[in-house]
Write a sequence for this structure.
């Protein structure tokens, strides 16, 4: 192992731009953040659904039962007051966690986070498009959650709406070697070699 170099920065602290490799040191290796694939995102989402379900069961359902409001009879189509309130909790959970922490509880456990394609900070407009409009459409139709399987940059519909990626926090792909001109992974933009 080489000695610690004061001029060497941690790649996790750098702005995210998956189109430009990050040169980690004065050496010739280049790295970029590793994009999170379908299965890790699926398990993170599953954990988040359990968290929201638990929050709903602990805080919302007891209030509805105390007020003697039905939690099962639909009012309009398939919706009732409880389901609408639970949906709002679901959307607010994803909105606030993503805006302030760049990750939800499920993403924290699995070590992935949401980053913007441009810049280093998620803006409110980006998070609202991603977590409210995009997630509502994805939750309603379900198939948009499968998009990361087919997209080269592993983006779901809500990522496309908001120009975001989901990346591994501390995992990087080696892009190439400057001195030799050798490049790893020339299959396509999102290929992991």
């Amino acid at each position: 192992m080489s000695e610690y170099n004061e001029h060497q920065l941690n790649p996790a602290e750098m702005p995210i731009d998956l189109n430009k490799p990050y040169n980690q040191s004065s050496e010739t290796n280049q790295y970029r953040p590793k994009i999170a694939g379908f299965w890790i995102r699926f398990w993170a989402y599953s954990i988040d659904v359990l968290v929201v379900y638990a929050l709903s069961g602990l805080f919302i359902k007891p209030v509805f039962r105390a007020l003697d409001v039905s939690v099962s009879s639909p009012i309009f189509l398939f919706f009732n007051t409880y389901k609408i309130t639970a949906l709002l909790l679901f959307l607010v959970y994803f909105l606030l966690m993503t805006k302030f922490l760049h990750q939800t509880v499920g993403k924290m456990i699995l070590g992935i986070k949401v980053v913007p394609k441009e810049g280093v900070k998620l803006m409110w407009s980006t998070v609202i498009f991603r977590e409210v409009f995009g997630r509502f459409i994805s939750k309603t139709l379900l198939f948009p959650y499968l998009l990361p399987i087919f997209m080269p940059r592993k983006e779901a519909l809500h990522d496309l709406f908001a120009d975001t990626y989901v990346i591994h926090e501390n995992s990087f792909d080696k892009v190439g070697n400057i001195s030799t001109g050798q490049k790893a992974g020339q299959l396509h933009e999102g290929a992991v070699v």
